[in-house]
Amino acid sequence: MAYLVTGVFGFSGSYVARELLELGHEVVGTDLPRSLEDPQLRLIAERIGLDLNHPKLTLIGADLLDLGSLEPLAAMCPERIYHTASLYDYSASLETLRLINVEGTRNLLEAIKGRYPKRFIHWSTCGVFGKPYTAKDGAKANVPFTEESSSPKNTPRGAEGPNGTKLVNPYSISKWEQEKMMWEAYEDDGLPLTVVRPAPIYGPGSSYGHGGIVLTIAHGLLPAIPADSKNYITASVHVEDIARFAIEASENEDTIGEDYNVVDNSIVSYHDFLDYIALLTGRRLRKIPGLKMTQLKPLFVGAATTWTWLQRQFGIPRVRVFEIQSTSYVSSSYWLGNRKTLATGFEYRYADVREGLKDTVAWFRDMGWFASKDILFVKGDATAKG
To answer: How far apart are alpha carbons 23 and 250 in whole angstroms?
Structure first.
């Protein structure tokens, strides 16, 4: 009985497949046919330790938007499904994100209906909790989001977002709707569901998200930050830990019907997080006194809007992580609780983000990503895989 990994050449999917193979399981990995043939994605998969020639690995091209292409996967009746495939792209429109993340996942559920696996592990995001409270909200400020906070699992049907907070961008909206649909399948049809909600994922293999921030600093394109950034918390999880937790959760029947925030133990400010990256990459990060993060946000939004327009109209290269949706996180302080994951007995391999960043920076350097700007810039519309 094979284990199915969707989005196998995505950031999380490649690590899940790698870990499953190391445990001796038969793995079917699926992704878009063009992704499975992409030389860069294949190289990254190999360099993070995924043996593409492993005798227990089968790669099959499929498209979540093509129900017919999912039928052969469903016919295999996989014992477990790790659904990592989503469009993770802060440049994409809400319409596109809904099409892939919501309707694509609906197609997957339709394909396996009546032949559900023993376990279905779904990748959501901690972004479904919405924008955290700030100091002006008084006692609610800097209270960590936990699984008991308002989420797709514990809000009434039809709820368009969390109670009391606001979803900050189209990506988070699409993931809210996607997760909401999964819980309905659990309640109505008995899907043996476990939902994992990773914090921003980083580690060897991804030049997007936190990885894109590392590259931006390493290339000297973020020379200064507001001194006020020391008052804002950021959260992270290493890609190995989200993969390992998902697999461990799938082996424990007590996790069926449960949701888990997967985030490391670090409580670190944006100031210290970015300063540490600068230290590792040999860059100096100046601190701008008097400039507050709240003042920086409209400047970032305006600059990102202009640069995105120039990129799309004239092909002027844009730093990939400098996007309109990404700027929605500026001036937000994200504190996420992980006690529920720890209560399962799980031990984070990279409990401190500083340890994970050291290995990540070393891997980037070995890959030559610090010497080339091709991985950092985008000319056309980019699609990042999560």
So the answer is: 13
Determine the Cα–Cα distance for residues 303 and 68; give it in Å rounded to an integer. 42
Cβ neighbors of 184 (< 8 A, separation 6 or more) are 157
Residues 6+ apart with CB under 8 A from 35: 9, 41, 385
Distance CA 285, CA 220 (A): 9
E-only strand ranges, the chain: 3-6, 27-31, 57-61, 80-83, 119-123, 193-198, 201-202, 224-226, 233-234, 237-238, 258-262, 268-269, 286-288, 318-319, 377-378
Q: Answer yes or no: are the C-beta atoms of 2 and 27 closer than 8 Å.
A: yes
Note the pLDDT tens digit of each residue in 121-164.
999 999 999 988 665 665 556 678 999 999 999 999 999 999 98
Please tell me the pTM assigned to this model.
Answer: 0.95
Q: Give the tens place of pLDDT for each residue, 303-337.
A: 888 988 899 888 899 998 888 888 778 778 889 99
DSSP structure string for 25-53: --EEEEE-HHHHT-HHHHHHHHHTT--TT
- C-beta of residue 227 within 8 angstroms of C-beta of residue 289: yes
CATH code linked to domain 3-206+231-265+334-350: 3.40.50.720
88 CB-near residues (< 8 Å, 6+ apart): 10, 11, 171, 208, 209, 384, 385, 386
